[in-house]
Amino acid sequence: MARRSFRLQFVLKGMPSKWAWIIFNLVICATASFEHDSWKAFIQLTEFDYEDTCFSTAEAEWAFVNSPSNKTLSIWEEKLVDYANFKHIQQIEVVNSPRDNNISDSSSQYKYDVAVNIGDALLNSSDFRTLVHFAGIAEFKRLSAVCKVSLTNYTHRDVERVLHFSNSAEEKKNVWIAWHHELSGLAKNITTVLPIVEQAAKENGAPDFIQYWESLSGYKNGYENIKYEWSKITNLHKKILRHVLNNLSHKYNFHANETIPAYLLGSLQGNDWTPVAVDVSPHPDLVHKIKKNLWKRKLLGKSLYEIASHMGAQLLNNVPQYEFWRNSNFNGHCPSKLIHFCKDSNVRVSTCYQPTLSNFLSAHKNIGKVLFNQMSADNVPVLTIANRYSVLEEGVAELFGILAASPAWLNHSRIIDNSVDNDQLLMVSLMITALDVLPRLAYYMSADMWRIKVIETGMKPENLTLSWWQHRQEYEGLNNNGTEIPTFLNDDYITSNKPYLSKITGTILAFQFYEYLMESTEVRYDTIVGRQSKADIIKVIQSGGSNEWSEIIKKFLEITEISVNPILSFFSPLEDLIDELDEDFKYKPITVKESELQELEKKIVAEVNAPTTTTVTPRTVIRRKGIVTPTPYNKENSLRANANAVSNNNKSLALKTSVHATEQKSENHNLSGSEVSTKVPFDESLDNSIDPDQDTKPKMNTSKAVWAVGAVLLATIVICVIAIFGRQRCRKTPKNRRYV
């Protein structure tokens, strides 16, 4: 630059000072603009390279999730290691790329930070392999473990059904303990894995691991702000907790103190309370009617997601692309897994068919995430997808969940009819949302606060479980009823060292989105069609990967801070009702209705599985619609009969209202004892999986910079040629026709 400046001064020496100064500044601006455009082109090439490698890794994860085996696990782990090495190479290239900090706009600066501070991928190969291997084995056990209760093999699906339907607290406790016992062998390794986050923080230039997690979520001072906001809603959470405790203590006949046994809440982790909605609702008949209509309308698997996609059409003028429906697996496992393939906003879901309240809400949230990625694809946010946890994506997903339980949407989906009393429907809607949102928020808080304490204090392995339940009792109001069960191993965020900060923030932000969209926090009975404010929500989504999320919501929605005030306003009618109910508490048993729902479930599944006969001259062809028949919780079930709950057999969900999904065939239809756990123990395989020669700095590839500069030069030449010939043509055109 100094040499060019000297030449310009020499050439312009004879010119008048004014014109010389103008020309000199124009040249400087043009040079700066060229350098900036060159750097932007370089980043775009980096993003395209990310897409290819990310796609390959996602394919390996998809194969593992749908066909868990030692082979698919090993392939996925190696792909993750290769992906990390690739990210490291790209990071070196970006750091060494020519870039003028004085001309970078906020979007360019954001992409630079995301491409340089790439998270756990900057770990040395030994630490990264340790983390990946532990997370992979834990996930494999969660997907394929089979627990033995009274000499009967129970899969994940069987255990969830017992926790959901059984009226025996002892039976629930037994299967809950047995399932988590299958994972407890990994507990001793958690103290090796958790401290790795400190090394990751150091490699990413963060002062400590807390600020490192905050940077990955794009929320400076996030934990301090979130703890302050959480303190505002603890009273609301405690009221819901007390109300649930009163009802469950009468149902299961136990003494109500201040906490609830986690296994009585209907799920393995106890952070989703929607399974007990009938037990605790002020209008249990209406909740039962909603659950019954989900089955009567046969909203199984794909049909459930099709209903959710209608919300996308109304709220965002968008629906999932054809590839989502073609490639997803709607007859797999729950909880559902959403995997992003990076290319062309390709997202797939692997989920189960059961139309429970939890799955109904989950389907809407997943559709929200699918559409978020689909609509933000124009900004090529692959760097954000690969290296950050998106608060906006979580916020949009939770907004879909809030709207899914609203009276307007329950009416629109024909899950309830217009004859229902509006006041009753309002309270049921609020209760469903409260049972979905508040326990998860409390769980996210306890999980992150527990890990922070473990890492900061260097806690010994023998104290982990005790400390875990102390945090769950403090934040969630749950207890383990005297059992030493490390349920944290059933959480993929904990076993992979992922922070929950983005989920906490996104959940709170969703109610601010709702307030902005509805221009109020009141639960509405009207639809969202025609609301002008939704255009701004669409702009937020479309800009989702281009800048810091806080800047985006400030620009389009004028939201300057995260606040729980909309949550408090939203639930205030329910809070008032609970105060009234607790003053004159009366328990309403609904055991008969639970049995009725189970019978309806059997009937609907039998109808879907029934063969349909099509007469074709001169022969008859029998075609069967395949769906996994749910096994009643109190009926003995063999492992082979339920193997598709673990390995996803070749039966695909087929409904009259759906397009057939691609059949996913499992590599391990019959699980033997050796397939239930990995062939090599964690400690032993960990030592053998580390290659000391791999811990070397990756070599930089300079070809990308050459392509970037070349692309900008070529574009500049083309523009100049067009300008020159366009000007000549204009001169040849008669003056009276130039502007016609």
Brief digest:
The chain has helices at about 1-10, 15-65, 70-95, 105-115, 125-145, 155-165, 170-185, 190-195, 195-205, 210-215, 220-250, 275-280, 285-295, 300-315, 320-325, 355-375, 380-385, 390-405, 405-410, 420-455, 465-475, 490-495, 500-520, 535-540, 550-555, 565-585, 590-610, 645, 675, 680-690, 705-730, and strands spanning about 145-150, 150-155, 260, 335-340, 345-350, 480, 610-615, 620-625. It has about 750 residues and is mainly α. The longest helix is centred in the first third of the chain and has 50 residues, at about 15-65.
Describe the structure.
The protein is 61% helix and 4% strand. It has 740 residues and is mainly alpha-helical. The strands form four sheets. A two-stranded antiparallel ribbon has the order 1-2. A hairpin with a 2-residue loop joins strand 1 and strand 2. The longest helix has 50 residues, at 17-66. It starts with a helix and ends in an 8-residue tail after the last helix.
